[in-house]
Amino acid sequence: MARLDAADKKTIGKIENLAESVLKATKGGKNPFVEIPIRSLANVRWSEKKRLIELGTQRQKRYFFNVSMAKKFMQTFLVSEACKELIDSGKTTSIRDLYYMTKHALGETKQNTFEEQEESDPIIEDLEVAVDSLREELHLFATGRGSMVGPLTIRDSGDTIDLRRMGSGGWSVPSIVEEHVVQIGKSEAKYVLLVEKDAVWKRFNEDKYWQREKCIIITGQGQPPRGVRRLVQRMHSELKLPVYVLVDNDPWGFYIYSVLKQGSINLAYESMRMAVPDARFVGLSSFDKLTFKLPANVAIKMNDQDNSRAKQMLAYPWFQAKRWQQEIEEMVKSGVKFELEALSRRGISFITEEYLPKKLKDRDWLE
Amino acid sequence: MAARKAAAKGKAKPAGKAAAKQLELVAVPAAPARRGKAPPAPTKVAKRPGRGAKAQPEPVVVPVPEPEPAPPPVEKERAPRRRATAEQMAAKQREISISEFFTKNRHLLGFDNPSKALLTTIKEAVDNSLDACEEAGIVPEITVEVRDLGFEGRAQGQTEESAPAPQGAPKNVRGSAAGTRLERAGGSGGAVPPDTKSELTKGEGRFVVVVEDNGPGIVKAQVPKIFGKLLYGSKFHRLKQSRGQQGIGISAAAMYGQLTTGQPIRVTSRIGKGKPAHYFEIQIDTRKNNPVVTKDEALDEWHQEHGTRVELEIVANWQQGQRFVNRYVEHTALANPHCTLHYVRPRQEPLSFPRATEELPKEAVEIRPHPHGVELGALMLMAGDSKSHDVKGFLQTAFSRVSATVADEIVQRAGVRGKVRPRDLAEDRELAERLHKAIGETKIMNPPTNCLSPIGDELMKRGLISFLSVIESEGPEENGDSQLDLDSASKKKVPKRGKGKADHSEAPPPQAPEAPKEDGVENIKGHNYFIATVTRPPKVYRGNPFQVEVGLAYGGSWPADKPVELFRFANRVPLLFQRGACGMTEAVVKTDWRNYLLSQPKGSLPVGPMALLVHIASVWVPFTSEAKEAVAHYPEITREIQLAAQECGRKLASHIRKRQHAQYQAERRSIFELYIQEVARSVGKITGRSPDPIRRDFMRLAEKVTEAELKAQDAKLQDMSEKITKRPRRAEQEETE
């Protein structure tokens, strides 16, 4: 049996309590249930004070003896059991792995406990909130994604890694970057730069921007996964580094920034650990097309989806700042969006040599 | 369409043949149709001068044999000549005999084409047999046999059975031979020659139809008139519930046979033990509407103690007509559960529908007419015939439900003063009209309804069950349409799976195994049918008492995605044609079946695995035509049918709900049982306990929770059904007062 640290013992205790509550209800002749905080837009709120999206207090009861809930109830306990087994044996696995671990036929029927991974993933999130444990604490991880380089030394599972010497590919960010796995060491970095796109990040790496500017560059290849978000948050809080975000000039880019800054609706319960309320949006701004004289032919026309998304964002409480409203309104008004690569129209290294330095120098960012 | 084509052929061919021999059928000039009208006034001239100006002038008018409606020859002059004088025309005007009329208009009687004629022939004979048995108080046993003469001829190469069957020589033997053949009905049936590759007659051909009953028989003197004279019968002049009405049917069938094959109708009848049986061959003199007996023999021996056997040789189309006959036979068995019916078909195993009860239906009593149903002319006629001394007496004796008080009221209201004899009434139109009006205004008790003989709830149910048993066991026939009958019995197995409401039939156990057997559900050959029947109290339309019955059989192996089968009956006789024109269909369509959990496209029959039986019993069923194929749209009748259908529908809805309930219950039980295994194991493992006691606790709890929840569900269903029944109930209220 692997060593159990205090965190693991606590998690196991929570899972056991959940099971005991079911036994108790059954003995008492009551329909057993699991109480789960609701993870939907209706049950999140924007905390202006903390500048975070927080999970509300609404909870739903998932009853065993209710035709529409019985299956999910059963699935919740299959996942619980598997997680307990993982923790007991000191192993960590992917959520896809867990899907296969818990999938089997029901009795003699052709039905399965889970038909698709899409069924088991939300159950895992349900369990996370139900027992108030993070995915990492349940010894689960999602597929890792993201790369990082910079003047920083870390320890990952006991190996010391110098992020100054990662070649062209960079260090790939694991899914679990908690303290017991990744420890952050010595660093000369002055800030952290999160880039939306892998291709743009490669430009920054090749141009040795991080060396020149003394910064850490990291990408989540689109919407950053939990590992990247958590690591950015840790560097922000442990190394006291400011965080800059460089994304496309479109609603999706704004949303990536927004999730990094104050958390997402689905993972609102983890906002505290994931969000960086101080993160700064350096670009691409809707006004950059003027500032940097981008020709009209590099613009992309907004489609209906973009438009409606943009209008939704105008209403979000965390986009109420005047400059943000102007930013989004300008995008809607002009009806065009820009990709980061559009800057290459001005020169292949325009983004690393002129655009970003100028932005930072002018303190031309949004918060 | 095919039938229509056949009809055209059928008319052309046999007519030519028959005309050669047989009492030559004279082409009756159409002129007599104008009889009664004054000869055309001399000024009347052909008034179509402008048309077809190029036609050559035809100067000579052939005076006599020219059929009247020929287009008038066009002449150049403006004023055409007279073509015939009144005298000339008078020469053409003569009486038409009723038989002649029907010779030309056989479609009115249901002999439109050879396939329909086959059915009509059988139907008329069977209806007569059943009526006779019931009137005499004999539990009927009837054999229907169809023989394909062409097929038998080819198959056996013998002459014995072929065309002109009774040669006179094998007289005594004939009847009994046929009899024994029929008794062997369980075996090869006589019509199934072994080891033969011969084909049945394709299309139309000569067939022999035999209908034999164990009825009271017919006295010798009456036989010729009954079978050889149209409009001769016992049922027309009285108000009594019976199948036959006018006395046309069987003689029309005989005439049809005579027209198409030249063969006379052959009748054997015996009225009791110790009495001889008589064998007749009867032809009809179509001009005089009189029977011509061509053979009359006493048989020494006959296998029936009493009864009648009718044989007709006709041109028919078995290939196309058999489905009508099949349906007629099975539906007759259905509506007459007291009757045993044997059915012998060419090249097929004989079928028997055993009776479901030994009890005869209640005897239908003859009644006097009800005053509210009488029309002015009829009233005057009846008054003229009356032997009473005064109007009051006339009213009391001639009508039902007219007591002295009621008669007084009518007389007073009509303002009849002093002593008025009924005979005066017949002559004084004004007075009669006042009396007629007074009758209409007087409240008179409804006619007695004991004269009706419905099938009855219980017997209708038994009839349905035995009908379904035969249908379920019947098999191979190649030409079924989508009907639920003998023809398609074999095909039913296919659509059972899959489509439509198939989840009913596919649910693992059709009925939750532990569910108690539901009331009204019958298991027939492995299929569960829900059967509901309703007999309405008797009602009156235009002074005629009538009674409506509706029965339904739901479920079983019937297709769920097809419109329901509608079986229509009038006085226990199945109505097979003109479904769309029938008042019964209208009433069923107008009923909102969606209230009873069936789907129903707008303006059509509901859809579902169901057969619906509608029966109207009346002393006078208002048919739309002499062929008795559809019932007229009387609002009183429509409403009664709707009420009965609604009552049945409510029973059905409750059954469907129960079934859904049981299904739901079974479903959730199985869900919980499956999940309990899993949860018990997981929870056991997490808490480090043995899963078995946990599982048992779960099971116990599941039972309890399920029960409570089902109760809530039931309450909801109850609510729903109350909502549903609200409307029909209101309708019923206004009806019962």
Describe the structure.
- The complex is a heterodimer of chains A (367) and B (737).
- Chain A is α/β, with parallel strands linked by helices and 367 residues long.
- Chain A has helices at residues 6-27, 70-89, 95-102, 117-130, 198-206, 209-213, 226-238, 251-262, 271-274, 288-291, 304-315, 322-334, 350-361, and strands spanning 33-37, 44-47, 52-55, 59-63, 93-94, 140-141, 147-149, 152-156, 159-162, 171-172, 182-187, 191-195, 215-219, 243-246, 280-283, 300-301, 336-337.
- A six-stranded mixed beta sheet of chain A has the order 10-7-13-12-14-15, with helices on both faces. A three-stranded antiparallel beta sheet of chain A has the order 9-8-11, with no helix packed on it. Chain A has a two-stranded antiparallel sheet with strand order 1-4.
- In chain A, helix 1 (6-27) runs antiparallel to helix 2 (70-89) and helix 3 (95-102) crosses helix 4 (117-130).
- The termini of chain A are far apart.
- The two termini of chain B are 48 Å apart.
- With 737 residues, chain B is an alpha+beta fold.
- Chain B has an eight-stranded mixed beta sheet with strand order 5-4-3-6-2-1-7-8.
- The longest helix of chain B is centred in the last third of the chain and has 53 residues, at 635-687.
- Chain B contains 19 helices and 15 strands.
- Classes of the chains: A alpha/beta (367), B alpha+beta (737).
- Chains A and B meet through helix 1 and helix 2 of A and helix 18 and helix 19 of B.
Radius of gyration of chain A: 23 Å
Mean pLDDT of chain B: 74
Low-confidence stretches of chain B: 1-70, 158-196, 475-516, 726-737
Strand content of chain B: 5-15%
* Structure class of chain A: alpha/beta
Please bin the fraction of helical residues of chain A. 40-55%
State the distance separating the first and last CA atoms of chain A: 48 Å
What would the principal axes of the Cα set say about the shape of chain A?
globular
For the biggest sheet of chain B, the summary is: 8 strands, mixed
